[in-house]
Design brief:
- This protein has 280 residues and is an all-alpha fold.
- The protein has two domains: 2-43; 46-275, MetI-like fold (Orthogonal Bundle), CATH 1.10.3720.
- Helices cover 76% and strands 0% of the residues.
- The chain has eleven helices and no strands.
- α7 runs antiparallel to α8.
- The longest helix is centred in the N-terminal third of the chain and has 39 residues, at 2-40.
Amino acid sequence: MSLLKTRKVKDKIFKGTVIVFAVLSTIPLLLILFYLAKEGVTAVNWDFLTSLPKPVGEAGGGIANAIIGTFVLIIIASVVAIPLGISIGIYLSEFRKHKFAYYVRLGVDILQGTPSIVIGMIAYLWIVRQMGTFSALSGGIALSIMMLPIIVTTTEETLKLLPHSLKESAFALGAPYYSTVLRIILPAALNGIVTGIVLSIARIAGETAPLLFTAFGSPFMNLDITQPISSLPHMIFIYSTSPYNEFHSLAWGASFILILLVLVMNISAKLLAKKWKVNF
């Protein structure tokens, strides 16, 4: 009996310890959100969201160029990474037993662990030096490389969850292989793939290091993808390291907007995954 009581006590201590650590793990996030809200909300207003930055010494100014630039970079990255990532995910799912698939999967895993600043340096050598200028295009391609592993992994894992009977039924009706994949397999897995795409966008939305070597930043509203472009992460970096208090206020406000953007994307991805019962 005493042994049973001892085990129950140990179980309670273990459960209590796990709960305490779980609660403690949320404290850093709550503190970050609290401090960003405290410092950033006061800087956010309509003028802040719709106007361009002003020169040093002038009051006011906003981050409209950085907001638009962030979405431009995300669009470029998505255009490059989404079709390529889905294609690779299909290959890894359909030919998972091939030897080459093993090396492709290994390469994707290594790419996912590659530091973002290294990807930025490579994009600088591949694109910026060849074009002779920093540009939104080079920044978008650098971010697309970071998106790629997440899209590949989620696509592959989602396709693996589909019943094999879907493919067999299509073949039994005489459907060719390409039509089976494009019209039956992919639509059935679309929900999970979209969830992975949202997660990958949330992953790159706050990246700064690659943009220092590629997009570089601009104080103007620029939609030309062959020219430098501003972004929220880059603006936060530049303004937070500035000696001027006006720029510090802009940095806090931009940080608040960026964290809201990332939170919305992550929460949306989780809700979509829960709705469609996708587990990653």
